[in-house]
Design a protein that fits this description.
Strand order of the largest sheet: 2-3-4-5-16-15-17-13-14
Strand content: 25-35%
Shape: globular
Oligomer: single chain
Radius of gyration: 23 Å
Order of helices and strands: HEHEEEEEHEEEEEHEEEEEHEEEEE
Distance between the termini: 42 Å
Largest sheet: 9 strands, antiparallel
């Protein structure tokens, strides 16, 4: 009987202590945070994806980010589309390892692991552009030489700018003056292209600017469908079993077929194409393509969690 009374007294004491805790005090320990703009600071303070929020090998959802990855098939070619919704513009990011100007390359999985990305895709291979175009990473502009023409085509590149609101802007045939006149804040800038969809209009008549425009190939793009909402679309190439690959015209048709696409930009393709996501034993994996042949890359565009528990 005495033991029972002691237990009742202990419970009563604990309940009285809990009554003194302000409501929301425990919840306040978990929040969506703003990630550092700077690339190195962002990597240093990055938050790893939380294992409990992987709903499957193809879906992740925490209070700051939701990603689903779905397969499809078009024109005898398999594709993957990753749908991404984030809570903060700071969660769409880019990175490279080493110092700017070095020829450093890594597997896409290595880059994604270093960044603690939830989802990562290959970037624009900025280090191979013969010193042409715009290169900006996490608020720092490393190069603006958009006036230079691409040797084979004699044309200027379409440039992609991601601003501090997380919005995608495509500057067709961009010049230095176009970049200088951009009214927003440049956070990330890519030079590869072309723009597949610009301001809701599907583009056509693509010229070959080191992108094998008229040849079936592996393709990758980033698209925006709403505020802080994106698609990453990958298509297999002839190197992959059961796929023929898409030309840029075919790829643009596919991308435009997704509802709500306002701007979509073609990134580096071929065997340097990576889509990285944690699967199985929660290790980073290249989830695109069946061909084991792959190449290291210089940079990634990625999405990070901002949920701090």
């Amino acid at each position: 009987m005495k033991n029972i009374l002691r237990v009742i007294l202990l419970i009563a004491m604990l309940l009285s202590l809990l009554a003194l805790v302000p409501s929301g005090a425990i919840v306040a320990e978990a929040e969506v945070v703003e990630l550092p703009l700077d690339m190195k600071a962002g990597i240093k303070s990055a938050i790893a994806p939380w294992p409990q929020y992987y709903l499957s090998d193809w879906e992740y959802e925490d209070p700051s980010i939701h990603i689903t990855i779905e397969p499809g098939r078009v024109d005898n070619t398999n594709y993957l589309v990753a749908r991404v919704k984030i809570a903060s513009a700071s969660q769409i990011r880019s990175m490279f390892l080493g110092t700017y100007g070095s020829p450093s390359e890594e597997w896409g999985t290595t880059l994604a692991k270093s960044a603690k990305a939830v989802l990562a895709i290959s970037g624009d291979s900025f280090h191979k552009h013969s010193n042409i175009g715009l290169v900006a990473k996490q608020g720092k502009v490393y190069r603006n030489k958009c006036d230079r023409l691409e040797d084979k085509s004699g044309l200027r590149y379409d440039v992609l700018i991601i601003d501090d609101q997380g919005d995608l802007h495509i500057l067709p045939q961009a010049t230095n003056a176009d970049v200088d006149a951009f009214p927003g804040t440049i956070v990330n800038g890519f030079t590869f292209g072309p723009g597949l969809v610009i301001d809701g209009v599907k583009q056509t008549g693509f010229k070959n600017m080191n992108n094998a425009s008229d040849k079936p190939a592996q393709r990758m793009c980033i698209a925006q469908v709403g505020p802080l909402e994106y698609l990453c679309i990958y298509t297999e190439g002839p190197e992959d079993t059961g796929s023929t690959g898409l030309t840029l015209e075919q790829f643009a048709d596919l991308v435009f077929s997704f509802e709500g696409v306002q701007n979509a930009y073609n990134l580096d393709g071929g065997v340097t194409t990576w889509m990285v996501f944690k699967q199985g034993n929660n290790s980073y994996a290249k989830i695109n393509g069946t061909n084991p042949k792959k190449r290291p890359i210089a940079d990634i565009l990625y999405f990070a969690t901002a949920w701090q528990e």
